[in-house]
Specification:
Layout lengths: L1 H22 L7 H30 L4 H45 L5
Helix pairs in contact: 2-3
Length: 114
C-alpha cells in the first residue's frame, strides 16, 4: 500500500515537473490555427463519406448499408462543424457590436466638463 502511494506521488511530481519545464517551449495556439483545424476536419469528414460512397458504388454497383450509414453520419458531422463555426463567428461579431455600442453610449453620456 505504501509503495503504491509513493509511486503515485512520485509520478505526479515528475509529470508536473516535466509539464512545467516543457511548457515554455510551446506557444499558445492562435485562433486562425484552431479555425483551420476545424475546417480541415469537417472537409475531411465530408470527403471521406463521398469517397467511400463512390468506392462502394463502383465496386458493388450499389451503396451498402454500412457505407450509407457512415456517409450520413460523416456528412452531418462535417456540416455541423461548419455550422457551429459560423454560429460562433456570428455571435462573436454581434457581441463585439454590442460592446462597442455600450462604450459609445457611455462616452456620449459623460459630462463634458471634467
Amino acid at each position: 500500500m505504501g509503495g503504491g502511494l509513493f509511486f503515485v506521488l512520485y509520478a505526479h511530481a515528475r509529470t508536473d515537473y516535466l509539464c512545467r519545464r516543457n511548457f515554455k517551449k510551446y506557444e499558445k495556439m492562435k485562433q486562425n490555427t484552431k479555425d483551420w483545424i476545424q475546417y480541415i476536419s469537417g472537409a475531411s469528414l465530408i470527403a471521406s463519406a463521398i469517397v467511400l460512397a463512390v468506392t462502394s458504388l463502383l465496386q458493388y454497383e450499389r451503396i451498402a448499408e454500412g457505407v450509407n450509414t457512415y456517409a450520413g453520419i460523416a456528412i452531418s458531422g462535417g456540416l455541423s462543424v461548419f455550422g457551429v463555426a459560423a454560429y460562433f463567428v456570428n455571435q462573436l461579431s454581434q457581441f463585439k457590436t454590442e460592446i462597442r455600442n455600450e462604450i459609445q453610449n457611455a462616452r456620449d453620456k459623460e459630462p463634458e466638463n471634467k
